[in-house]
Give the backbone structure.
Amino acid sequence: MSTLRALAKAQAVAAGVAQPVATVRHLHLHDRPLVLVPLALAGEANAPLAALVGATPDEPRLLVVPQPRNRDHRYRFAAELAAIVLPHLDAHRGVSEAVPVDRGRDVRHRYVDAPQLLVPNPAGITFLRLLGRSTRFRRTDGDYPVPPSVPLLGRWLTFFAERAEHPGSSALLAMTDAMTLHWATGQSAVEDLHLPALLGWIDPPPGLSGAEAAARAEDPDTHPPAGPATDPDFDNHRLASAITAYAEADDDPSARAEAYAALEGLLRDQLTPTWELMWRGVGLLRGLPPGARIEGRWAGDRDAFTGHAEHVDAGGGPQPRRDGPVAAAARLHRLERALTSYAVQRAYDDPLVMAEHRLTGEAFVGEVTLADPKRVDDSGKRPVLRPRIQLVTTEPVLVPVGAALSSPARPGQKARVVFVTPADGKTEVVLELSGGMGRGLTAAPGSVPEVGERLCYTTLSDAFLPSAAFPAPEETPWTHGGPPSGVGSGDGDPAEEWT
């Protein structure tokens, strides 16, 4: 936990309401997200019990599994869910746009939009990941066949679950994570996973403090758990009898229909409060102005969506159960690059996030007191434009001479530290600028900071991070098991993954 977030949590306790830890929204929020509130049977590994699904607050679809331990009922639930999710995904595949690549020498195409899934908490993401894993390898013929939509749904759920691991992705979001990214409450991180309590702190009812609203939210009768877990008291005293009544009515169609209606009403009552909280959270997030760089990250989600759709359309196989050594290393590298880039982009977009880096000495803010925009360095083979500016700051400057800095105000321009001079409780910093000023020996207007400007400079850089080179799967090093001995290694050939 950062120093500023710890301070914000202490202020939340003192003020009785959650405190903002961001000034902008750091995630993309779709105009029509697909909200999915799952419920699983306790004591059974990811056995779906029910789900409330929909893209508008007033039109939720309730899916019920009357016998969660019955595998036929589970896959019937998956088929019903596919009938909702797959058309929603296809609705975003109508229009493509050309994207220049290779410095404009070629183009590629991607969809202009992509779907977004919202679940209440990280456990909801885990539910979708396991549901995808249990369905994407199912056969559509032979023994125990399933409808073709079931394995297709599994592949898409796996895609979204993998995108949820990608830092900065907004394809699949847990509402509790989205809210705590922007607000700090006066409760623990574990308690923040409870959506009713979290929203109680962020948006308490009139006359109640955040702590009081969160305490009321702990009542499972008025605020059931936000899924996929259920309350043990509900399981033992209400759910068990409803499932038993349905099972015992096997020979009586009217009694069976009555028992199913009772079970459906019981589960709807459990899911509806969380459904309403989800849309309440969406409204709170919409109230924040979007960050400048979230559309660039959303473009990455659209690229991934387009790529997976094309892979499916081309008849490509499902994702393997596990990555091979090379694929795992490449995936880890991509996630590390994305995490670094995401941290920098958040800081560049949000001065409140950048303040955390100012506390650690990775950034400082100062006022420009001197500027030489016409300075030319002619010590090399040819003269180059190298303006210098001097900033005065009251903050500690921990960067060494020669360090490369960047400013969120001019991200395409680099600054090299030339001098750092403490003086009378302040620090004078002389920077030499390069890039972002045009190609000639005269700086473009506005490209060089002027006297009086107040700027932030940081060691964080939003420059492109090149990817590392990895060997082909057949050249796997001996340290990682050596080359694969056959198919089904997890590096793309799913031939042995259908067993």
Notes: The CA atoms of residues 83 and 453 lie 57 Å apart. The longest strand covers residues 410-423.
